[in-house]
């Protein structure tokens, strides 16, 4: 074993014997998982129940020692910031039985909905650790139900900002403070339930830590809290040292900045490997946007950590991981480091996923066997109003998110209908549960034919969910997404998938495309709505895809006969489709592929105005524009976005066309 | 008079046939290699090997892996699904999650029924069961015709909200029956009449794809048995810890999906109960993995959230078994940061631990036990001899040398890490549910259980360890101990304070008459029937429910609600008396008791152990070195024998370690009980 020498050196740098170390390391993991188990069982909010939460054990300095194995990616790398904020605020005035709350995104938090509860853990009167649970409250006040106000430009309209705040003192709930917190939400009872559940969950971790101190002694436990971090840092550095040195740069884009009209908003990521050091630099990213699609430094950091971790899936997450990675977020005031008082609630759909996917692209070049094209964008649809099914017209909140397609990979297709990269544990809700609680009848929940980005290995398929409002009163709809214009892209010659965006009353005279971000749109009983989630981007040239794979996709309806020809140049004849009898036309396929090969670079140069006009006339489809012509328009009106198109074509040239032979 | 009870337990490696003679109250066992390709072969071979005369058999029970293996290998017949228009992909979208959050190259498998075989019909029912869109019967017939053209053998019907109104599913089933005679059809409202479309469809589809296979297997086995002269019912162990007859197994084949692992947990409950322990944690430790189960107040802990493969939930109640990758063959290794790790990779049976000399070079837990002389080089019976030098070389080269440790110390460290991992797993199944391990007995079995039991109990502060007389066949014995049992449910959504007690009573009444009918069909007499009601509820606004028993009568509901508060406090450490409680679902457990074998109880005569068969210098970490340790032959230990640790007890199928200063007793059932809490140090 070549690792033996390293292993020996590493073991000798430790004070704890190997057994105590391994036992405590695993026991820390158990103490955090126990906390997660508890919250999952006791939470009130269905958002937390759907696993939008995380748990951590931090040391006395606030550094993260262990994070839950099933935690949400977007919380990774933020929990230590929140813990340090509590330390900063309260200093030595932190006592046994206290519990603190914090959600401030300007102190390394995520967004206002994510409320952390932090409990100090003492041994023999000495502060040795903190237990933390961060959970997404379904509502935290602000202008719109669910607190996702796209139009917010500052946090004042987003909801309640909680700077570090004591909620329990010496084991006693400070009831007036708790009441103030929950009274600023639209569902105080649920919030109060979550407040209790979260605080009690941190108590589970505290009990476990006390047990460990009783058994192994305070000294060894405190030593282990540090050694577990050193251990992770060592693993990361060992792995990184084996990779080639170099610097790689890429850009991903947010759809637009309302302050500047149309035009994609760049998020730039530069990655450098030198020896055993990984460094990131986000400077070069655009100024903060005039919507809530900004990130605070905590979530930008999280996007980097989560993107990196995807290429080291087996390494535990803690501050040792963060120490091994040097991150320069760049100056304050950018879309990735917005700073007070910029609105940042939409970080999750905005910069966060852009940083993560950009990271995937960069790492795909360094570790090609784990390469992956872009995945669909996190999206939340919120409908809030009064339920006319009940005499009291109870307040309801239909809060929905979808699975979608992940990017194509080096040796296989992308994963279809999967939870977002933002948090793979975020489970799609059962619609039968939603229908009981809300006056919304779901009309479809299905995969979308042709939604997968074509490639030698195609992306995974996206999903469509549609619904009808049945009995509602004073109801509004908001949507938090992105990538209606910065469409989910392929790599190594692969093509994009499909644009995101909500359609109202589709196929009726009242049809409207509402786009990928909006807030407070009034809706009435009888209105229908629907939206896709994108598929994953393709990996590799679709003309190199094995035609028999395309045929299988046609049989299953993942790909239509028409798009098989247009995207893959594969000609399939439906002989007896009822019993899945289709035939591949080899000769026609060769001709079709030749024709695409000859023309496809020219298509990307075609006059955008002309292409947009052909879209408006119905001659070209949305998929033709995105995949063949690289033209981006308002998908509802067909109005051309010239700047966006220029940027999109440049992106396609770099990620896709340059790899075509 | 038929005097034999026969249990056949099919495991991954061996098929055990356990024969209990009611005249002599003795158990004999035959072990044959399992034949996963065609499990029936091993079953029949085992019956022959055990010299069973089927005309002398009063009761034949069987734990089978046939359903589990079919789900793992996905060897399914041509299956299709019919669902509500717009929802063809509920099965493929699932809930979107993955088992591994971070590995982007590890996917959940494709659905059991491919997209091309999933069909939609126009129909829709809303959340209260009102018809929004009637079933389009022309479409339904058209689908049926297509399925016939495709030669489909088994069909799942899953419509949205069918738990609230099963009418459309029923009608669809009638149409399929008319158009596709002989094809097996499962509707989601019959299989699992519960809210949440994906869970219901997933369970139904698993049932659908297993149907023809399980029917075939069960019919064939029944034929073989009756051909041999057995005239009773073949009793099949199901995941819920009871058994069912072939008639029911053919309707609910998915209930057999955990049949193979249920027997161990049943054995644990029985052993613990006989020893007077109402609470027990069972640890079945084999070569590659350990199955952990939990018994509380004489009830095996059950769960409704489980799967054979991640992403494919089967929502029938099942015995809760936590399987972890830790066994005798688990590998000890150093990771790149110098930490000593154990498992989940295993040397398995091939190449096996280094000491087997079958090509394995990596150190395993078995090697560590051998190096420390807890395990002997010659196993009793001489079936196999172990190579000590090979074990030493593996531990020395891979662990001791890199860590700068002495050989013994390194081997001891390997086992301590393995035990700590298992202890963490036990904590997850106990502490996280609000159980304190100190209130439990630890029942250890399987080949490696006895080697680790005492150390593990110490780690968890569990006071007593029970090592059954035959650790290698304990599971098979569990098979002999089951009753016929069915679990029925119906949705009942109301607030507890305003719920109609009459309506509740009448819903339970319907479940009970259904259950009685099922048991009657299985030949149970009224006097052997036991019907137990329970109800699941939750705090208003919460998503997860808890199930508590409920009696009948006007006060029953109020009592159940109070019990709900109490149980909530125990499991989740808080209660909210002022929050409204929502009723959610009614459950009925219907049992038809079958006669059980009675195991012989020996008289206990307090005495010293017999002459040891050997002495070894065995390493114990609590002594930080080796101490002289007597080795006893289990066959020679009679009831009442007191053994002061340290000692090693050897028998054909396992070895038990009693640590220094720890007293052990052979009880009246010939179990070894190690009283860890009475250890002198």
Automatic annotation (TrEMBL), chain A:
Pfam families: Hydantoinase_B. InterPro entries: Hydantoinase_B, Oxoprolinase-like. Transmembrane segments: none annotated. Residues 17-542 form the Hydantoinase B/oxoprolinase domain. Signal peptide: none annotated. It comes from the Bacteria. This is Hydantoinase B/oxoprolinase family protein. The lineage of its organism: Bacteria, Bacillati, Actinomycetota, Actinomycetes, Pseudonocardiales.
Automatic annotation (TrEMBL), chain B:
The lineage of its organism: Bacteria, Bacillati, Actinomycetota, Actinomycetes, Pseudonocardiales. Residues 200-487 form the Hydantoinase A/oxoprolinase domain. Residues 5-179 form the Hydantoinase/oxoprolinase N-terminal domain. It holds the Pfam family Hydant_A_C. This is Hydantoinase/oxoprolinase family protein. Coiled coil: none annotated. Residues 494-669 form the Acetophenone carboxylase-like C-terminal domain.
């Amino acid at each position: 074993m070549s690792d033996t020498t390293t292993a020996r050196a590493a073991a000798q740098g430790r004070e704890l014997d190997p057994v105590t170390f391994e036992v405590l390391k695993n026991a820390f993991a158990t103490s955090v998982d126990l906390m997660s188990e508890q919250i999952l069982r006791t939470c009130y909010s269905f958002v937390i129940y759907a696993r939008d939460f995380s748990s951590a054990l931090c040391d006395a300095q606030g550094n993260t020692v262990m994070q839950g194995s099933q935690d949400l990616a977007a919380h990774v790398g933020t929990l230590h910031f929140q813990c340090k904020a509590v330390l900063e605020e309260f200093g030595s005035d932190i006592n046994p039985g206290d519990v603190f709350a914090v959600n401030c995104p300007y102190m390394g938090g995520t967004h206002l909905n994510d409320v952390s509860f932090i409990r100090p853990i003492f041994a023999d009167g000495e502060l040795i650790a903190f237990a933390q649970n961060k959970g997404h409250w379904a509502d935290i006040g602000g202008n719109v139900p669910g607190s996702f106000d796209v139009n917010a430009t500052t946090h004042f309209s987003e909801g309640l900002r909680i700077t570090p705040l004591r909620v329990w003192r010496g084991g006693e709930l400070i009831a007036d403070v708790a009441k103030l917190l929950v009274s600023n939400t639209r569902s105080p009872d649920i919030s109060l339930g979550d407040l209790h559940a979260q605080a009690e969950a941190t108590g589970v971790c505290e009990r476990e830590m006390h047990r460990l101190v009783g058994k192994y002694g305070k000294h060894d436990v405190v030593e282990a809290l540090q050694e577990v971090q050193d251990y992770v840092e060592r693993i990361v550095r060992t792995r990184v040292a084996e990779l080639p040195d170099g610097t790689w740069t890429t850009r991903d884009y947010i759809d637009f900045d309302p302050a500047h009209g149309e035009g994609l908003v760049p998020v730039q990521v530069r990655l450098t490997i030198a020896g055993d050091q990984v460094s990131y630099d986000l400077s070069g990213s655009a100024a903060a946007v005039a919507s809530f699609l900004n990130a605070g430094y905590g979530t930008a950091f999280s996007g980097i950590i989560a993107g990196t971790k995807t290429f080291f899936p087996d390494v535990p997450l803690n501050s040792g991981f963060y120490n091994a990675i040097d991150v320069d977020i760049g100056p304050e005031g950018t879309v990735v480091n917005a700073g007070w008082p910029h609105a940042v609630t939409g970080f999750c759909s905005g910069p966060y996923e852009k940083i993560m996917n950009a990271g995937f692209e960069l790492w795909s070049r360094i570790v090609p066997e784990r390469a992956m094209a872009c995945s669909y964008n996190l999206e939340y649809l919120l409908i809030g109003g009064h339920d006319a099914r009940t005499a009291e017209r109870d307040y309801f909140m239909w809060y929905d998110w979808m699975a979608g397609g992940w990017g194509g990979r080096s040796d296989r297709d992308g994963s279809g209908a999967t939870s977002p990269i933002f948090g793979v544990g975020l489970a799609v809700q059962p619609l039968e549960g939603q229908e009981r609680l809300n006056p919304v009848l779901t009309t479809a929940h299905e995969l979308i034919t042709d939604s997968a980005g074509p490639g030698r290995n195609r992306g995974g398929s996206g999903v469509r969910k549609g619904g009808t409002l049945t009995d509602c009163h004073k109801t509004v709809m908001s949507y938090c997404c992105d990538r209606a214009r910065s469409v989910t892209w392929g790599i190594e010659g692969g093509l994009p998938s499909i644009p995101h965006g909500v359609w109202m009353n589709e196929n009726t005279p009242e049809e409207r495309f509402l786009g990928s971000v909006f807030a407070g749109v009034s809706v009435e009983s009888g209105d229908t709505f629907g939206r896709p989630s994108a598929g994953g981007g393709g990996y590799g040239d679709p003309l190199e895809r094995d035609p028999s794979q395309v045929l299988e996709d046609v049989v299953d309806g993942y790909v239509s006969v028409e798009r098989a020809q247009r995207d893959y140049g594969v000609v399939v004849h439906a002989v007896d489709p009822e019993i899945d009898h289709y035939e591949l036309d080899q000769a026609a396929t060769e001709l079709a592929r030749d024709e695409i090969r000859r023309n496809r670079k020219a298509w990307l140069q075609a006059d955008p105005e002309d292409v947009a006009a052909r879209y408006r006339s119905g001659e070209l489809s949305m998929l033709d524009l995105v995949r063949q012509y690289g033209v981006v328009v308002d998908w509802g009106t067909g109005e051309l976005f010239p700047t966006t198109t220029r940027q999109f074509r440049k992106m396609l040239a770099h990620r896709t066309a340059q790899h075509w032979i | 008079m038929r005097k034999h009870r026969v249990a056949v337990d099919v495991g991954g490696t061996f098929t055990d046939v356990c024969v209990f003679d009611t005249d002599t109250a003795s158990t004999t066992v035959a072990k044959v290699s399992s034949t996963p390709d065609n499990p029936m072969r091993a079953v029949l071979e085992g019956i022959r090997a055990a010299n069973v005369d089927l005309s002398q058999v009063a009761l034949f029970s069987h734990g089978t892996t046939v359903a589990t293996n079919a789900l793992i290998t996905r060897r399914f017949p041509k299956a299709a699904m019919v669902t509500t228009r717009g929802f063809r992909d509920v099965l493929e979208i699932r809930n979107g999650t993955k088992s591994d959050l971070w590995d982007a190259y590890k996917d959940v498998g494709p659905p059991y029924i491919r997209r091309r075989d999933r069909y939609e019909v126009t129909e829709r029912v809303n959340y209260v069961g009102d018809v929004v869109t009637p079933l389009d019967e022309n479409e339904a017939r058209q689908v049926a015709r297509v399925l016939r053209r495709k030669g489909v053998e088994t069909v799942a019907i899953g419509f949205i909200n069918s738990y609230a109104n099963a009418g459309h599913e029923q009608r669809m089933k009638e149409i399929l029956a008319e158009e596709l005679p002989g094809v097996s059809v499962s509707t989601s409202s019959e299989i699992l009449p519960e809210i949440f479309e994906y869970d219901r469809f997933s369970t139904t589809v698993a049932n659908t794809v297993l149907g023809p296979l399980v029917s075939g297997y069960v019919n064939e086995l029944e034929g073989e048995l009756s051909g041999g002269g057995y005239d009773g019912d073949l009793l099949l162990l199901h995941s819920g810890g009871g058994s069912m007859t072939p008639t029911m197994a053919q309707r609910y084949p998915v209930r057999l999906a955990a049949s193979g692992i249920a027997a161990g947990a049943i054995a644990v409950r029985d052993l613990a109960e006989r020893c007077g322990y109402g609470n027990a944690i069972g640890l079945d430790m084999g070569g590659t993995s350990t199955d952990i189960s939990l018994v509380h107040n004489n009830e095996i802990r059950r769960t409704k959230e489980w799967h054979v493969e991640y992403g494919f939930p089967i929502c029938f109640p099942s015995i809760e078994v936590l399987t972890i990758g830790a066994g005798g063959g688990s590998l000890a290794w150093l990771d790149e940061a110098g930490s000593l790790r154990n498992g989940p990779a295993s040397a398995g049976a091939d190449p096996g631990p280094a000491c087997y000399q079958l090509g394995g070079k990596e150190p395993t837990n078995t090697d560590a036990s051998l190096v420390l002389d807890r395990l002997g080089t010659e196993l009793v019976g001489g079936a196999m001899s172990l190579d000590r030098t090979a074990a030493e070389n593996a531990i020395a080269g891979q662990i001791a040398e890199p860590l700068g440790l002495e050989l013994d110390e390194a081997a001891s460290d390997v086992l301590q890490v393995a035990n700590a991992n298992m202890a963490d797993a036990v904590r997850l199944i106990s502490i996280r549910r609000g159980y304190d391990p100190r209130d439990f007995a630890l029942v250890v079995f399987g080949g490696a259980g006895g080697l680790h039991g005492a150390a593990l109990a110490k780690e968890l502060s569990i006071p007593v360890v029970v090592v059954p007389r035959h650790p290698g066949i304990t599971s098979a014995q569990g098979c002999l101990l089951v009753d016929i049992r069915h679990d029925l449910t119906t949705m009942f959504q109301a607030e507890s304070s305003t719920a109609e007690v009459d309506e509740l009573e009448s819903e339970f009444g319907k479940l009970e008459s259904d259950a009685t009918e099922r048991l009657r069909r299985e030949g149970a007499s009224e006097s052997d029937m036991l019907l137990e009601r329970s109800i699941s509820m939750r705090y208003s606004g919460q998503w997860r429910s808890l199930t508590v028993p409920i009696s009948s009568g006007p006060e029953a509901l109020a009592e159940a609600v109070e019990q709900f508060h109490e149980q909530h406090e125990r499991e989740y450490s808080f209660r909210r008396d002022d929050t409204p409680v929502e009723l959610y679902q009614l459950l009925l457990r219907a049992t038809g008791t079958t006669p059980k074998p009675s195991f012989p109880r020996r008289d206990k005569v307090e005495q010293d152990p017999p002459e040891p068969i050997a002495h070894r210098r065995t390493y114990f970490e609590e002594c930080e070195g080796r101490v002289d340790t007597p080795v006893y032959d289990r066959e020679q230990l009679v009831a009442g024998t007191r053994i002061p640790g340290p000692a090693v007890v050897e028998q054909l199928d396992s070895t038990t370690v009693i640590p220094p200063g720890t007293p052990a007793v052979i009880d009246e059932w010939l179990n070894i009980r190690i009283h860890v809490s009475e250890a002198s140090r």
